Structure formats: structure tokens, C-alpha cells
């Protein structure tokens, strides 16, 4: 349905996106992951026809949309990372306003607003001002705006940031339902790995403007098929213990969420004895040790060397 070919974007002396390629089949939910500054937002802006690429092309059903952006705008809905609503209007008034921008006929718009309010679960709050809404309700209304013109493709840029767990679950279930029932294709970015695990059929990982890995969840995880993750909890994390771990030759990556450390090591290497010796030398008390199969987040850390939120 959508293809990106050798897409590049330069801003003065900085190359934000470096000749990336990816595709999306109709009916897929595709995850686009990367730490801040990886080039995700610039890529989304180019796909959405808001920013022209320096080189490369974006094709919708094998037709370039760069010269005729209306091709993609007719079928594309965008849920931006920042709330894009009018706070002094009601939920219904916001939907009416954006519906007119899409040039939806009056009778069709009235019907469509009713359908969208049901989908996002805000029918009972349609006459309330948006400024009185919780963060989760604003996010849901943002999604409603993107759904008004019945798009075939939706880009969702971190749609669950800063909201309560109940609203977050509602949004995830809504995305899943729209995809399954209406075959809406979704490009989904998130800072929450469990969301990507739950929703996405395939994943692209970006860093420094490049796609550094792609595939299904299982294919991505297989990158670390020869590794295992040690989850170590200490009573007090001491700097000399951490420095000692970093100096051990067989450790691939260490992530710290004090007092828990996640360490990626080769499966065939028994490093526990060295870790316990180091703990004794640095007077570090280890509370527990668990051995786990690497997760999607472990792979991300291995590939980028950074936490997703960095």
C-alpha cells in the first residue's frame, strides 16, 4: 500500500534521514521505533506530505505522492504526538470544525460524528469543552479527528503519552479493533515496548536517521538468539560495582534502573561467578538474579546502545 524509497532529508549541515526504505501492506500495523533524534518525526512528516524530502520518494499504491500530495491526504489520518484540538470548543464542535476542513458534506458529517463519538467513547461528553477533559480524553478525541474522513491509513505518533492506564488500554483496544474490523493500516510509534509487542505485525527500528533493523517481532528478537539477559537486583547500587561490570569482556550491554540491572551476555558464557566475585570485592549485596530470554527492549538496547526514552 505504502512504499518509501531512499528517503533522505537534510537540514543545513545535518542529515536527519539517510536514505531509508520501508513498506506497509494494506491492513498491517507497523511499528516505527527509535530513540529521540532518530529521525522518526521527520520521516512521518515526509510521508504525511508536510515536509518535502531532499531526495527519494513516497509512493501510495505505486504512485508518487510528492508532486500530488492530495493523493495521500485523502486516505491518511494523522494522530500527532502533541494534542491538536481547540480547547475552548466542545468535542462535537472540534469534530465539526475538522470535518469541514476535510470538506465532508453536512449530512454525511453529522452521521460520521455520531459514529466517531461512539468509537472513541465520548458520546456522553460531546457537549463539554475540551479544556475540561482529562489527558486521556483529549488523546481519544485527537484520534476521533483523524478518523472523521474514514482514512485507509493512520499514522499514530505516540498516542498514549502521559495518560492514565485505563485510557491507554482503551486506545490500544480501539486501534486493534479498527485494524481488525475496518482493515485500517496503521503506522505506530511509541515509547512503550509492550504496546508495540501487542499491536504490531512488523517493526522498523531507526537510529541516527537510518533503519538499522526490520522484521516481525520474532525476527527482531532473533537478533539476540545467541544471548541471554541477566536481571540482577542489588540492595544498593555502587559505582565501583557498575564500573567493574562494564569492564567484564563478555558483557554486551548493561541497562540500569536502580536497583535493578539488566545485562546481556552470550548464552554459552557463564559469567555469574565473575559477577558474584565482583560483588564481594565491592561490598555489593545481590538480592536476586534471574535469567531471561531477550525481549524486544533488550534488542533495541543492543542495537542502539540507548534506552528508548533517551
TrEMBL record:
SUPFAM superfamilies in UniProt: P-loop containing nucleoside triphosphate hydrolases (SSF52540)
Statement: the UniProt record of this protein carries the keyword Transport: yes
Molecular function as annotated in GO: ATP binding
Superkingdom of this protein's organism: Bacteria
ABC transporter domain sequence ranges: 2-233
Pfam family, one: DrrA1-3_C
Keyword check for Transmembrane helix: no
InterPro entries per UniProt: AAA+_ATPase (IPR003593), ABC_transporter-like_ATP-bd (IPR003439), ABC_transporter-like_CS (IPR017871), DrrA1/2-like_C (IPR025302), P-loop_NTPase (IPR027417)
Keywords: ATP-binding, Nucleotide-binding, Transport
PANTHER family, per database record: LINEARMYCIN RESISTANCE ATP-BINDING PROTEIN LNRL (PTHR43582)
The name this protein goes by in its record: ABC-2 type transport system ATP-binding protein
Species, as recorded: Anoxybacillus andreesenii
Amino acid at each position: 500500500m505504502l512504499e518509501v524509497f531512499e528517503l533522505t532529508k537534510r537540514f543545513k549541515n545535518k542529515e536527519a534521514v539517510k536514505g531509508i526504505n520501508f513498506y506497509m501492506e494494506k491492513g498491517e500495523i507497523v511499528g516505527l521505533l527509535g530513540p529521540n533524534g532518530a529521525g522518526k518525526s521527520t520521516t512521518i512528516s515526509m510521508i504525511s506530505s508536510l515536509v518535502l524530502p531532499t531526495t527519494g520518494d513516497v509512493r501510495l499504491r505505486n504512485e508518487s505522492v510528492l508532486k500530488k500530495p492530495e493523493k495521500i491526504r485523502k486516505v491518511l489520518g494523522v494522530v500527532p504526538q502533541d494534542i491538536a484540538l481547540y480547547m475552548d470548543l466542545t468535542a462535537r464542535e472540534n469534530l465539526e470544525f475538522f470535518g469541514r476542513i476535510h470538506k465532508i458534506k453536512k449530512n454525511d458529517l453529522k452521521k460520521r460524528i455520531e459514529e466517531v463519538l461512539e468509537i472513541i467513547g465520548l458520546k456522553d461528553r460531546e457537549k463539554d469543552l475540551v479544556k475540561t477533559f482529562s489527558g486521556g480524553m483529549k488523546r481519544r478525541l485527537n484520534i476521533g479527528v483523524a478518523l472523521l474522513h474514514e482514512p485507509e491509513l493512520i499514522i499514530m505518533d505516540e498516542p498514549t503519552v502521559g495518560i492514565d492506564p485505563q485510557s491507554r488500554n482503551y486506545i490500544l483496544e480501539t486501534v486493534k479493533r479498527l485494524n481488525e474490523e475496518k482493515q485500517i493500516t496503521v503506522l505506530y510509534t511509541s515509547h512503550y515496548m509492550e504496546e508495540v509487542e501487542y499491536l504490531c505485525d512488523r517493526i522498523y527500528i531507526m537510529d541516527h536517521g537510518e533503519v538499522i533493523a526490520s522484521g516481525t517481532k520474532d525476527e527482531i528478537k532473533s537478533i539476540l538468539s545467541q544471548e541471554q539477559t541477566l536481571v540482577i537486583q542489588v540492595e544498593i547500587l555502587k559505582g565501583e560495582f557498575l564500573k567493574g561490570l562494564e569492564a567484564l569482556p563478555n558483557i554486551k550491554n548493561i541497562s540500569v534502573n536502580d536497583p535493578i540491572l539488566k545485562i546481556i551476555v552470550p548464552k554459552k558464557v557463564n559469567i555469574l561467578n565473575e559477577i558474584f566475585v565482583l560483588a564481594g570485592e565491592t561490598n555489593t549485596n545481590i538480592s536476586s538474579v534471574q535469567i531471561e530470554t531477550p525481549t524486544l527492549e533488550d534488542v533495541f538496547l543492543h542495537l542502539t546502545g540507548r534506552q528508548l526514552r533517551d
